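Entry 14: structure prediction run for Efflux RND transporter periplasmic adaptor subunit. Input pasted below.
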Amino acid sequence: MKSINIKSIAAITFFASAIIFSSCKQSNKTETKEVPKAKEENTAAIEVSAEQMKAVGIELGTIEMKNLNSVVKSSGQLEVPPQNKADVNSLVSGIIKKVLVLEGSFVHQGQTVAILENTDIVKLQQDYLMLKKELVYTGQEYQRQKELNTESAGTGKIFQQAAAKYETDKARMQGMETQLQQLNISPASVANGKFVSQIPIIAPISGVIGHIRIKTGSYLDMQTSLMDIVDNSQVHCDLQVYEKDLFKVKSGQKVVFILTNQNNKQITGTIFGINQSFENENKSVIVHAKINNTGSIRLLPGMYVSALINVGNQTVQAVPVDAVVNAEGKTFIFIVSGEEENTEEKGPKEKSEKAIGANPEKSIRFKKVEVITGVTELGYVEITPLEEMPKDAMIVTKGAFYVLSKAAGGEEE
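Run finished. Output tokens:
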């Protein structure tokens, strides 16, 4: 009787274990089927409210066509030609009586910037006046000896001496007149007995006053510069192009400049000259490019720039670097898959403004699109979408990382 009971109990235990194992296996199958479903939810449309977009600074735009492939990258700084900058000097030493300009002020060529006093100037004017009066006498003596020599009443030696004296005095007077004019003193006024002890220092070019090295009452010698003047109207860029890229660069090519320390603002230019010698030991050649348009950007000599020299005409699809995100070993951009009412007839800018409206209850739906990236230049990256996209599709140009966090189910920041 006992053996029969033991066999019955063993059979019951076996069947119970089989039922439990079958239930666990069925449960595992159910769980594995739910995983792809969760993955599909992650690739669905991503909704971001207008209030969230405004808070995190999400911006919308379109895919642009940029010339990123056929370019030569270089760097350099802004310069002005030698004829557009000048040092203000004096031809005589003396005491500064007045300074008539301020640093940063604009002056015209020929404008008086300072007044200098020197007593030696008075002696120069005296010598000029005396020589002018003496020249009258030597001129008369020359004419008298010339007449006598013509009539054979005088000697040839005396005539030659008179002629030499007259020519010498005339040359001396012309030299002194030139000196007076260089000092901005009128020879005619000196001839009338009007002497001056102070002379004006004038600006040699038009431009903006730089550093002023003098002050009222300071002594100035001829080796010391009073101030400098710079005319920034002809500012251009000196770029360093290395030997490997030199054969690609030619005069007339277009250039895009990025002002490195000015929030990466862009200006355009054209190459107008290429040096024919290497600079120092870095095997680079200076390439000169004029600025075509500055807009409201203030350009100063010495500003550092990065530049792209356009050596071809190929264009590619490109988006701002902030529009591209990486996830799961792939690269994505986000396009607007659900737009507000009546935005389909608007332009890209109007669409963006409409999408990020003031109504916090409305949401924008985004779709993740995988792309392949290429060259990156000037804040843009080349892209090739791996699926067909609508024409003029709106994309996230700034704040794509936040949209990615929403897609991954991350918490709002």
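Notes: Residues 376 and 382 are 6 Å apart (CA to CA). Will compare against the previous run tomorrow.
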